Amino acid sequence: MDIAEQTINLFGESDEEVEAEEESNKKNNYTNGDGEEEEQQDKEPQSSSSPSSSSSSSGHSSGSSSTSSSSNRSSSSNNNSEEDNDVRPSSHSNRTYNYNDEGNSHYSENEDEAAEENDERGDLFGSDNDDYVKTPAASPHPIPVLPPLRNTNNQPRGGFGRGRWQNDRGRGLLPRPGSYQQRQNYGYGNNFYNGHRDERFVSELKFSKSEETLARKSIAFQEPCELACYSRVEGGDVYFDDRGLRLFKRLITEDIGSDLNEGFNTFIPKKELGSDGFGDLLAAIRNKNIPLQNMHFVTYRNNLNKIMATAYMRHEPWEMGVHKRNGVVYLDVHKLPERPQNELDKRRCYWGYSFEALATEDPTRADGEGIHHVDANVEYCAVIKTKLGAHRILMGAEMDCCDSTDEGRRFYVELKTSRELDYHTEERYEREKLLKFWIQSFLAGVPYIVIGDDAGLLVRTERLRTKDITHRVKMKNYWQGGVCLAFADEVLCWLYGTVKENEDYVLQFAPPFSRLELLQAHSCPDVIKQHVEQL
Known about the structure:
The protein is an alpha+beta fold and 535 residues long. Helix content is 33%, strand content 19%. It contains 14 helices and 16 strands. Strands 3-16-15-7-8-6-10-9-4-5 form a ten-stranded mixed beta sheet, with helices on both faces. The longest helix is centred in the first third of the chain and has 29 residues, at 54-82.
């Protein structure tokens, strides 16, 4: 054995043999059946040889395989020149190459493998999909109905609608998840108002305008002018004069510390007159022959107080009767049922009448004499003409007392009571009570309000000018008088344009306190019918 052979045995195949073996592996796809048999013959002595001679036998087999591959290549090239597009499959590859005359090759998948894949996938519209073929054209399931789109224009800023469900979206598509009990009517109960539930419904006015929008409107309000009056005395008799008007006692401060509970046992509470009280106002209008051809509304001031205060106070329900005759809309007062009063509530109500008795001159009461025989039914009512926006209004307003200037001109004074204020109650007092005080005095042209602080005793008194109240709350941004006027103008325009001649309605403000509703009424009060007949 020479040195070259020893090197091959010790370190394996030489570089030339490695290159020849790699080249034979690259050309292995083009070998024929003879080449495969030669490879199998080469492998048999390798497996039977001992480990010591394995490197030598592998070297000889690689040499013979390279020789056979070269001979196979030469034979295959000769066969290709003789036969066109001759395909020879190889056991080492699952692909075949088709050669044409131009020397270009085209790749195609093995037909057997493609057939297996087709068997696995199947045809979507083949016979193996009978269930699909038998699918009916019309589905047995109903088509889901989407909820209606709601109009998002003119929504109030920060008001109803943000953070809460709007109630005009229709019923839900899916039930509530989990094991919760399903809500009746899909959750639209008293807290979720769903449409118009009252069969008497005619129209509604939604509160769609924000405070900023109403504040930009400038509504003209005509200075109130008194045209007539009437007085109700003890026993219920009515006179068309001012005998029931009391004079303001300027030295009210002398009565500081008086017991407001005095005379409670002999107090005569106010009787509910209903529509008969509205008849007294209409009788005073007829007594003075006040023309109504150019009037739009005839009402008590109390109804206008409710409408204007609703601009800010959205938690107090109210309603009123609406009756249109000869182009004039008559607003009748409706009193809603109240919760029963306990002893303290009755006394607090009496404190107001007791303060009125202390703050007015009483010829029948001697100096230093206590309060006695207070009758809440004794009253004086002024008939006032004014104009709010484009609507002329004739209203009746009860007056507490009057005073006069040095020149002898008479003016009215409102008397009110309030609890003694502290830093806890002052904000609510200015937000709510001062708002009501201002509306009541402003509508009737009352320039002064005298307030007595009570806790069963007259603690102190305060005189306010009506026009100063708006300046007092304006700096705190609690409310604006112009917003109340603009809101009332919106309501009166909608109301007058909606009601029809010789028809009767009920205007109500009720939960969820987001709109005014106009309902159909079935009758008209007799006092209005008689008034129209006597005109």
